[in-house]
Amino acid sequence: MGEVDPAFIQDPEHRPKLSIIEAEGIPLIDLSPINSIPTPDSISELKAIEGLVREIGSACKDWGFFQVINHGVALAKREKIETAARKFFAQPLEEKRKIRRDEKIVAGYYDTEHTKNVRDWKEVFDFVVEEPTLVPASPDPEDKEETQWINQWPENPPELRPACEEYAREVEKLALKLMGLIALSLGLPEDRFNSYFKDQTSFIRLNHYPPCPSPRLALGVGRHKDGGALTVLAQDDVGGLEVKRKTDGEWIRVKPTPNAYIINVGDVIQVKYLCSDYF
Fold first, then answer.
1. Whole-prediction pTM value?
2. Considering only CA atoms, which of 100, 98, 143 is closest in space to residue 125?
3. How far out from the chain centre does Cα 13 lie?
4. CA nearest to 65, candidates 264, 241, 273
5. What residues contact 225, with CB distance under 8 A and at least 6 apart?
6. For 226-275, what is each residue's pLDDT tens digit?
C-alpha cells in the first residue's frame, strides 16, 4: 500500500490516540455451563444457566458487547483458518485480485473499502455462510425478484476453502447458542429467534492490516456500528480494537484474551432491548 494516500487520512479528532485506555470492565463471560451440561437436571446446574443468562442480559444492556471463553469452537479450527488466511494475504496483489469482488459479486477479495468516506488501511476476504444466499434484488418491498450471493475461492492456498467452510459451521453454532441466551435474558423462549435465521445472510470476513508507515494518521477500520444481529470477532495477540464506552463516550482499547471471541451486539438486537414491548 506504500505511503499514506490522503484518502486514508482520518480527521484529527478521529485519529488514533497516543495514550491507550484498556477496557478492563468489558464483561468476560464463561460459557462452560451451556457446553458441559446438555440437559440441566439439578438445582446447581439450573442456577449456573440462570446466572449465565443474567450475565448475557447485563452485558447487552450496559455495554453492547462482551467477550466469551470456553465457547466450544475448537482452537485448532481457528488456527487452521488463520494460517490459511495469512498465506492468502501474503500473495502478490495481482493474484488476490483475481477474485476481487465488485458491484455484482459481493464475496471475495477487496482492498479499497471506505468507512465514513475515509479509506480503511486493510484488505479483506469475504465469504457467505449459506451458498447461495438469496437476497432481494432491490430495496423495493413490492419487488419480489431475488438475486444470489455466491462465493469466490482462490486457487491458492487450496486449503483456504475447506478451512473457511469448516470454521463457519462452528462459529454459526456459537452464534445460535448466544442468540438463545439473549432470548432467555429477554424473558422469551430460547428458540424465539431461530426462525429469523432460517434464510440468513451471514458472512465471514478475514481482515488483514498491513504495516502502515504513518499509523497516527490512518485506521484499519474507521468508527462504525454493526447493523446485523451479532458479530463474532476473533482478535489475534496484536489487538487494536477500540470500543466506545456508553457512560462517557471514551474510546477504550479491548485487551486480547487468548482463544476468546468478542461479541458485538448489532443494531437489530439492540432495538429489541430498547423496546421492551417489541413482542
1. 0.86
2. 100
3. 25
4. 264
5. 266, 267
6. 888 899 999 998 888 888 877 777 788 888 899 999 999 888 776 555 55
Quote the CA–CA distance of 56 and 185 in Å, as a whole number.
7
Q: Do 222 and 120 meet the contact criterion of CB atoms below 8 Å apart?
A: yes
Quote the radius of gyration of the chain (alpha carbons, Å). 20
Phi-psi domain of 117 (left: phi exceeds 0; alpha: psi -120 through 50; beta: other): left
d(CA 247, CA 243): 12
**Cβ contact 127:107 at 8 Å:** yes
- Cβ atoms of residues 87 and 160 within 8 Å: yes
With contact defined as beta carbons under 8 Å apart, do 217 and 9 qualify? yes
Residue 238's CB is within 10 A of a number of other CB atoms, namely 8
Angle separating helix axes 267-274 and 43-62, nearest 10 degrees: 100
Helix axes 160-185, 43-62, angle to 10 degrees: 100
